[in-house]
């Protein structure tokens, strides 16, 4: 049986955030940092804006007042369906001030995906952007109201103008008084891709977020004068927890951009004299096409330690491993430790980490094993999977360690190197794609008898999705010829773009092992060896999620 969340008695005695919550944090930041820039909005088009820490508190209090006036109560779920923008930050903190729960959804979700997420979260209302408003209004009729940023912009007209859908500016009202601090109250639901066909809602408490902010700031050695250039999406753990919250904890400044742009990156970095940056595999590869200027970066936060790239970009790197459930960099490197290129680092001092074989025994140096993480639920590890007690309990072993589903290799010098995923997950440009979810979507086509989805190595995006499809036997020759395109169109309508297959390959039968299990390892070998274009293949657009390579 997994350990339960922290008890009330234990919270009073041992929780470092007892009597403290996100609202308390905001008040203290406003008092301590005041007029210091908290957020600089740097859009590629249109007017930018700067918010101080005092501005943050003012906006949060008035937004919370407006949400309360429209019926939102403590414990209610509020969907934030947005790409990066200031309002996505302000509403998240307004929810925390009010005691509501912010449900952050992937801005690239297709209509059916969005409908599932909103229903699963039991959300009562939503905040979104103009170009996403119609999709949200159409697929989520149960929402009491939808506030739309820049509602008059093109793309929102069909949704805005009713009592239910209105401009974001109307959400402001008189400031709402602060609630009594409760660090164990739910603060956020972040959706992560699991090994099943449906995403799981990961519940974070106020204490979870405060823990993540403080620990990440310390591990990355952030300072109050740091300026963090951030383009990673705020509906993912790395952009939000590793980067945004940690910079806030240090009292620094976040320069927030809507997404990654290769051609604009260095200009922005120089203009704002950025000292901290965040990178993923795709963006570091893309930036190699640009000359590296004399910049002010002290450190980049990355997912993989690479001394050659560190030297090429003339910047130290703090790499690490983490996932939504564990909030932070549980495995972390520092610029002064280790020589292993490709490694993710050593265990954080704040967690207990085990690497075990199939029998639960610790592996030796040079061996690969399953990664388990020990911590306290609701503090250093997520509280629960939303509405799924059984999956929550099954995710912990008998000793209370969280089963991450990832495998790592122990190096002789104590470092760890990511090996593979026990779960059938494909990593596309920084996004996790569940092969099971894509397979379930394609299998709904009556013209498909069987389908298997795997990842194919890609120099730019790390991996892309490849679908092996067995056509229904009653399909005619012309219908069979058109099947790859039909699969692609079906995925485009039902899945976020980065989840769609880059290649759809028709095959007479799927390879099997044992008692009939599909041989995914064989398919991965085929995908890796195959050229990018071949008979029976259709190519999707580049799948980069919230990133842009231009």
From TrEMBL:
Coiled-coil features, chain-numbered ranges: none
Region listing for Disordered, in residue ranges: 530-550
Database matches in InterPro entries: AMP-bd_C (IPR025110), AMP-bd_C_sf (IPR045851), AMP-binding_CS (IPR020845), AMP-dep_synth/lig_dom (IPR000873), ANL_N_sf (IPR042099), ATP-dep_AMP-bd_enzyme (IPR050237)
AMP-binding enzyme C-terminal domain span: 437-517
Domain AMP-dependent synthetase/ligase: residue ranges: 30-376
Database matches in Pfam families: AMP-binding (PF00501), AMP-binding_C (PF13193)
Stated name of the protein: AMP-binding protein
Organism annotation: Paraburkholderia dipogonis
Upper classification of the organism: Bacteria, Pseudomonadati, Pseudomonadota, Betaproteobacteria, Burkholderiales
């Amino acid at each position: 049986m997994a350990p339960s969340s922290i008890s009330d008695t234990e919270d009073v005695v041992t929780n470092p955030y007892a009597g403290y919550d996100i609202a308390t944090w905001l008040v203290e930041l406003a008092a301590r940092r005041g007029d210091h820039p908290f957020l600089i909005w740097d859009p590629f088009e249109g007017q930018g804006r700067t918010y101080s820490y005092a501005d943050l508190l003012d906006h949060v209090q008035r937004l919370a007042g407006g949400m309360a006036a429209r019926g939102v109560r403590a414990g209610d779920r509020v969907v934030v369906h947005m790409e990066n923008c200031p309002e996505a930050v302000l509403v998240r903190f307004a929810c925390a001030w009010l005691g509501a729960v912010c449900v952050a959804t992937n801005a690239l979700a297709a209509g059916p995906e969005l409908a599932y997420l909103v229903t699963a979260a039991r959300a009562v209302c939503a905040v979104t952007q103009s170009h996403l408003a119609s999709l949200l209004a159409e697929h989520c009729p149960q929402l009491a109201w939808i506030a739309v940023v820049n509602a008059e912009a093109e793309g929102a007209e069909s949704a805005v103008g009713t009592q239910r859908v209105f401009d974001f500016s109307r959400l402001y009202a008189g400031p709402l008084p602060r609630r009594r601090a409760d660090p164990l109250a739910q603060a956020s639901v972040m959706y992560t891709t699991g090994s099943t066909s449906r995403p799981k809602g990961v519940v974070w408490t106020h204490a979870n977020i405060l823990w993540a902010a403080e620990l990440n700031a310390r591990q990355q050695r952030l300072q109050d004068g740091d300026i963090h250039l951030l383009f990673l999406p705020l509906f993912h753990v790395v952009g939000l927890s590793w980067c945004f919250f940690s910079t806030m904890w240090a009292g620094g400044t976040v320069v927030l951009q809507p997404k990654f742009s290769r051609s604009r990156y260095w200009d922005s970095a120089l203009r704002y004299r950025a000292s901290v940056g965040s990178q993923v595999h795709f963006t570091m590869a893309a930036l190699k096409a640009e000359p590296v200027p004399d910049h002010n970066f002290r450190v980049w936060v990355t997912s993989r330690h690479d001394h050659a790239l560190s030297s090429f970009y003339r910047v130290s790197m703090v790499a690490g491993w983490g996932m939504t459930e564990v909030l932070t960099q549980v495995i972390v490197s520092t610029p002064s430790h280790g020589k292993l290129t490709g490694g993710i680092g050593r265990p954080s001092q704040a967690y207990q980490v085990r690497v075990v074989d199939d029998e639960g025994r610790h592996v030796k140096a040079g061996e690969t094993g399953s990664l388990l993480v020990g911590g306290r639920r609701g503090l250093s590890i997520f509280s629960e999977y939303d509405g799924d007690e059984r999956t929550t309990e099954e995710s912990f072993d008998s000793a209370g360690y969280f089963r991450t589903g990832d495998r790592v290799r122990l190096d002789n010098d104590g470092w760890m190197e990511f090996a593979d995923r026990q779960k059938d997950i494909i990593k596309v440009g920084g996004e996790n794609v569940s092969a099971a979810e894509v397979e379930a979507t394609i299998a709904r086509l009556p013209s498909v008898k069987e389908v298997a989805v795997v990842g194919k190595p890609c120099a730019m995006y790390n991996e892309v999705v490849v679908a092996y499809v067995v056509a229904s036997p009653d399909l005619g020759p012309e219908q069979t010829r058109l099947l790859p395109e039909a699969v692609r169109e079906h995925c485009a309508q039902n899945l976020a773009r980065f989840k769609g297959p880059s290649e759809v390959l028709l095959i007479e039968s799927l390879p099997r092992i044992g008692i009939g299990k599909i041989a995914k390892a064989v398919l991965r070998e085929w995908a890796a060896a195959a050229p990018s274009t071949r008979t029976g293949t259709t190519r999707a657009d580049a799948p980069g999620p919230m990133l842009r390579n231009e």
